[in-house]
Amino acid sequence: MQLRTTIPYLLLRTAIHGARSAVSRGALVAIAGCAIFIAAPAKADVISVRIADGNDDAEEHLNENNNIDLGSSDLEIGAEGGGSDAQLIGVRFLDIDIPRGAIINSANIQFTVDETDDEVQEEPIRIFGELGEALRFSGNGGDISSRTRTGLSIDWADIPPWDTVGDAGPDQQTPDIGILVQAIVNQSTWEPNNAMVLMMLGHENFERTAESFNGTPEAAALLTIDFDPNSFFAFGDYNDDGAVDLADYEILKANFNTGTTFAEGDGTLDGKVDLRDFVEFLREFNAGGGNAAAVPEPSTVLLLGAGIALLMASTKRRAI
Ligand SMILES: [Ca+2]
Ligand SMILES: [Ca+2]
Ligand SMILES: [Ca+2]
Ligand SMILES: [Ca+2]
Asked: Residue 93 C-alpha to ligand 2 middle, in angstroms?
């Protein structure tokens, strides 16, 4: 199976893979895209969480009413009705016991075949995470499509035919969605044991029919996350030199409101460089960016805030 991914995702994937390979060295590492502070001894934890409620998997029909189906016995990834009725699928997982900002090594969702399908896939299924509260799905029209999505998405392409009911192997598993999980656990509102929602945006002329909780609870979607509980995302080290300092601030400032990647200042991984990134940057800057000798003077912090405030004011003027 060939995986198609977005360029920012590849950059970050490289960075996180670099961090993983460096874990055994138990050292401070800096790699393309971001820097990771490794506290020895590092280890990887794996959690697997299955959907546990009929209202935690749902289908939204992408028609004019955006009707929600909470109780269907299956989830048609792509489109229902022989491929004519495109759907957005939402899956919600409870009690994700991961600390805020922990490095996500990899993640995937495992589905199980409910009905056989063999349409050739012309375009990918696009997978997003939800930023925000990740509430249980409701029957209100548009409940899934109205949620705030991660700025990044992962493409699930070239899905082979599903030819045996009950199969739950690599062909029914999403590509690595670790970067989406990273964006979710990086949110300032994230706390261990929060719920997590992921969404699969379908299209017409393609259908893969997976089990839902309402159909067969023990074969409902299963989210697996491999993470390092001892290593944390460095939100502010955009230039990978192991320190969160004025050089990183200049990057953030230069790309404020226009940047889209981590290297351009998007520490929160939502595809935008904005005030939230600056808040995260300041948090790490104030803490010395992992370097206790580098804690700045309060007056420096005030100057940085003034610089960003000027940028925000000039943006507002341009917008009028
Ligand atoms: Ca359901
Ligand atoms: Ca269905
Ligand atoms: Ca830096
Ligand atoms: Ca951001």
From this structure: 19
Q: How many angstroms does the Cα of residue 71 sit away from the middle of ligand 3?
A: 49
Q: What pLDDT is attached to residue 296?
A: 62
What is the model's pLDDT at position 138? 98
User: Distance from the CA of 117 to the center of ligand 3, in angstroms?
Assistant: 49
* Residue 298 CB partners (closer than 8 Å, separation 6+): none
CA of 167 to the centre of ligand 2 (A): 18
The per-residue pLDDT for range 124-138, each reduced to its tens digit, is: 999 999 999 999 999
- CA distances to 115, 120, 121, 170, 223 from 161, rounded to whole Å, are 11, 8, 9, 12, 22
- Distance (Å, rounded) from C-alpha 303 to C-alpha 294? 17
- Among 42-56, 204-218, 270-284, the range of highest mean pLDDT: 204-218
For the segment 307-317, the average pLDDT, to the nearest whole number, is 73
Ligand located closest to 239 CA: 3
